[in-house]
Amino acid sequence: MHGLIRSLACSAGALWLAACQAAPVSVHDPVMAKEGKTFYLFSTGPGISFYSSTDMLNWRDEGRIFKQDPRWAKQAAPNFDGHIWAPDIQFYNGKYYLYYSVSGFGKNASAIGVTTSPTLDPRAPGYRWTDQGIVLQSVPARDNWNAIDPNIAVDDKGDAWMAFGSFWSGIKIVKLDATRTRLAEPQVWHALARHELPDTEATPNEVEGPHLLKKNGYYYLFVSWGLCCRKQEITYRVVVGRSRQLTGPYLDRSGKDMNHGGGSPVIGGNATWKGVGHNSAYTIDGRDLMVMHAYETADDYKQKLKIADIKWDQDGWPTVDPLDLDRYQGKQVK
Fold first, then answer.
1. Torsions phi, psi of 262, nearest 5?
2. Which residues are catalytic?
3. In terms of pTM, does the model score above 0.85?
4. How far apart are CA 269 and CA 191, in angstroms?
5. Any bridge partners for residue 160, and if so which?
6. Which residue of 176, 199, 213, 316 has the fewest CB atoms within a 10 Å radius of its CB?
7. H/E run at residue 7
C-alpha cells in the first residue's frame, strides 16, 4: 500500500514528480524557519546541515553552518566528533539565533551553544554566523541532566525560556536573559518530563527532543520516547502534553503529569517507517506543521525528512495522519 501511495503522490503534479526523481533528504532532528518566500531546514550533522526550499518538497543543500568546529566544543565535550546535534532556529530582535548541541553519544559531557546571523540566505549581503559561545553545560558526576536538544519558547510576559534534555533526569526548562545567549539570573529551573523504564540501566529515562508550540491558550510539549538510531531495535515515537503555563505542569489526555511518565501518543513507527521522532512544530502561513525524521525500513533504516500537517481534535489535542509518512517525499535537488 505504501508503494501505491508513493506512486500516486509522485504522479500528482510537476512539483511532486520533480521531488520523486531526486535523492531523498536525509536529516536527523530537523528544525525549520521561513524567511521571505524561502524555507530553511537545519539538521544534526557535521557543522550543522543546512537546506533551502521554496515549496518544502525540493531541498537544496546549502552546505554547513560551521566551517570549523566551535572553538570551545572539545573542552566542553571531549567525545565531540564534529557532528553538531539537534539545532533550534529562532528569530529575535532583527537576528536569527541558531542554538545547537555538542556531545558524545551516550554521554552527558555536553553543552548548548548559540550562533547568530542577520539573515538565513547564504547569498544575501551581510550573511554571517557569529558564534556566541556556551549557553548551558552539563558535567558528568556533577549534573544528572544532559545539556542537548534545545528549544526556545516565549512566555506570556515576553520572556524567553530554553527547554532541553535527553535521558538522565529528563526534560528541563530554564529562563534566558534579554540577550537570549545566557541564562537569566537568578536562575529559574523547572522539570517538565520524564519517562522512566522499569529496569536498572544507568540511563533508563528514554525521553528527549522537547519542542513547544503555543496554540489556543495552551503550550503543547512534544517529546520523543524510545531509542533512535538502532536499526531493528528503533522504538522512537512522539508524545505530547499540554499546560496553560509555559513552565508546566504538562498533562496528557488522561490528566497524567509528564513529569511522572505521562504523554499522549501523536505518531509512531510502523512496518515501513520503523521509528519517527525528534520533531519540531510550527504555525507557518496559517498551517500547523510537524517536521521530523523517520527511519525507512526498506532503505537500511536510513533517516528521512518528513513534514506533516497537524490537525486538532474536538478536545484541542494535536493529531498527525500516519499516512503522511508516505505521502510526503521531500527530495534533495541541485
1. -70, 155
2. 29, 208
3. yes
4. 27
5. 154
6. 199
7. helix 2-10
